[in-house]
């Protein structure tokens, strides 16, 4: 028998993401037959009551995706169990160990990271950190380099690095993996993937949601630590890394860590020029009025809900190519995309474009709301115009267009891929200790520069693309953020 233990099994992450993901995997016949799933949390409820809650949440999600069937649920239900525990107490965890048995055991910590250190110590004492055990850690691990190392050292006392799976759910997104396929499964992009041809790269993660219930957590972290330190730097790594020699976990992660090491530190003197902090004030998002961040709790706060940064990678391939990243809450659209903006033609024989720009190409890797990769290329506007007119057309490389007669596969929750990999012990799509360490180091410098200079976040109206300074970050260099037009 193998076991998957979900610490925080009744919490938001487990109910919204992990348990539905496990249902979908089971539905598709991808879970090992003998896998037991054990929810573990503080609340003193019975296994029946827990399973009833899981049933409700999983059914709603599966029905929405037209993937609900009673037979799959019956299979999943037979796997499920629950135990009320104090996860920091070894005695209490012994009951969990008894339920999990002596087979392979994967423990997913979906609890407050402030408890990670104490939980792993208790796990070790309870026999849940044996050689055939793994641990999955949800982000954020730490709030800065120091606290990350403190937690990670406690983890390292109990587990070898090969047993540790630091999750970044962005790496489980289909389009993110497609980016790896695009770069390393084709010859045509590689010769263009450098500072001779690429003008700059943009990474945007825009969200329409506010912070709402998550205020106490979020106010401690802010956009820099919640999104940029992990998801956005991971995307940057996948765009910028050198080709790994294979898809082995260490081959891929060795390349990613080299990118992180090459990030130019942002000095306090530079911070004002290359970073923007923002916080939303009242406005409207998708036609609905939205309150200011600080009114959601009725408390003043200097936490940023928006960040934009220019990063420079000091290596041979990327010297001189800025990577612009921006992310925020209460922006006009839920949009996640990576834009590889190629240089304009050196001399245009067609004059300039309608908006005065010279012709250029752009590869847009869209993760949300749609999953798509498209290349914009110039072609001739049909007609008899005296002077040849050009227009950009988008060549879509997405499944929807090219999937021939088959229906596109169901859009999977990113955690499906990652849970499956963790259960198999494949850590290619997980973050290694030195990656997280390096990312914190870079982000700490930004945070220190902000606090050192007393940079307060600039206001931006809910429903706008952040403070004006975010546009200036690009326009100062003659560039602009990609728009959907
Ligand atoms: C989480 C952050 O890691 O990612 C949230 O903590 C954010 O603040 C979420 O909303 C975004 O994930 P996705 O997959 O919806 O882009």
From TrEMBL:
Residues 5-178 form the Glucose-6-phosphate dehydrogenase NAD-binding domain. Keywords: Carbohydrate metabolism, Glucose metabolism, NADP, Oxidoreductase. The active site is at 231 (proton acceptor). Pathway: Carbohydrate degradation; pentose phosphate pathway; D-ribulose 5-phosphate from D-glucose 6-phosphate (oxidative stage): step 1/3. The keyword Translocase does not apply. It comes from the Bacteria. Belongs to the glucose-6-phosphate dehydrogenase family. It is an enzyme of class 1 (oxidoreductase). NADP(+) binds at residues 42, 139. This is Glucose-6-phosphate 1-dehydrogenase. Transmembrane segments: none annotated. Its EC number is 1.1.1.49. GO terms for cellular component: cytosol. One of its GO terms (biological process) is pentose-phosphate shunt, oxidative branch. NCBIfam families: zwf. Substrate binds at residues 169, 173, 207, 226, 329, 334. One of its GO terms (molecular function) is NADP binding. It catalyses: D-glucose 6-phosphate + NADP(+) = 6-phospho-D-glucono-1,5-lactone + NADPH + H(+). Catalyzes the oxidation of glucose 6-phosphate to 6-phosphogluconolactone.
């Amino acid at each position: 028998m193998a076991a998957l233990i979900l610490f925080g099994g009744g919490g938001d992450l487990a109910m919204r993401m992990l348990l539905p993901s496990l249902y979908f995997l089971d539905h598709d016949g991808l879970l090992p037959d003998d896998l037991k799933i054990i929810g573990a949390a503080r609340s003193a409820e019975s296994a029946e009551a827990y399973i009833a809650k899981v049933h409700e949440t999983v059914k709603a999600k599966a029905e929405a995706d037209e993937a609900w069937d009673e037979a799959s649920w019956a299979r999943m239900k037979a796997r499920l169990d629950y135990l009320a525990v104090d996860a920091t107490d070894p005695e209490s965890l012994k009951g969990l160990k008894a339920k999990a048995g002596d087979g392979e055991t994967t423990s997913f910590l979906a609890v407050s990271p402030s408890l990670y250190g104490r939980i792993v110590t208790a796990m070790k004492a309870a026999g849940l950190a044996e050689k055939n055990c793994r641990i999955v850690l949800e982000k954020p691990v730490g709030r800065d380099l120091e606290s990350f190392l403190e937690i990670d050292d406690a983890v390292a006392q109990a587990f070898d690095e090969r047993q540790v799976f630091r999750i970044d759910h962005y790496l489980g997104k289909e389009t993110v993996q497609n980016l790896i396929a695009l770069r390393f499964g084709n010859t045509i992009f590689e010769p263009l993937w450098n500072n001779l041809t690429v003008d700059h790269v943009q990474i945007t993660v825009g969200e329409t949601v506010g912070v709402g219930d998550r205020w106490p957590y979020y106010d401690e972290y802010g956009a820099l630590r919640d999104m940029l330190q992990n998801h956005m730097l991971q995307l940057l790594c996948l765009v910028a890394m050198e080709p790994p020699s294979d898809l082995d976990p260490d081959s891929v992660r060795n390349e990613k860590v080299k990118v992180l090491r090459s990030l130019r530190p942002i000095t306090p003197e530079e911070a004002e020029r290359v970073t923007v902090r923002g916080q939303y004030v009242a406005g409207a998002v998708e036609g609905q009025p939205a309150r200011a961040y600080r009114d959601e709790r009725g408390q003043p706060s200097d936490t940023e809900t928006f960040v934009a940064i220019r990063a420079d990678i000091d290596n041979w391939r990327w010297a001189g190519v800025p990577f612009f990243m921006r992310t925020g809450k209460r922006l006009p659209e839920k949009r996640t995309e990576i834009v590889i903006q190629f240089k304009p033609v050196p001399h245009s024989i067609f004059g300039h474009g309608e908006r005065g720009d010279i012709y250029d190409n752009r590869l847009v890797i869209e993760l949300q709301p749609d999953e798509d990769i498209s290349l914009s290329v110039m072609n001739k506007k049909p007609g008899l115009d005296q002077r040849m007119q050009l227009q950009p057309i988008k060549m879509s490389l997405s499944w929807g267009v090219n999937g021939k007669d088959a229906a596109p596969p169901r859009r999977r929750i990113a955690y499906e891929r990652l849970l499956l990999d963790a259960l198999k012990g494949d850590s290619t799509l997980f973050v290694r200790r030195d990656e997280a360490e390096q990312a914190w180091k870079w982000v700490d410098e930004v945070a220190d520069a902000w606090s050192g200079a007393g940079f307060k976040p600039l206001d931006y109206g809910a429903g706008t693309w952040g403070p004006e300074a975010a546009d200036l970050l690009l326009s100062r260099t003659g560039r602009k953020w990609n728009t959907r037009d």
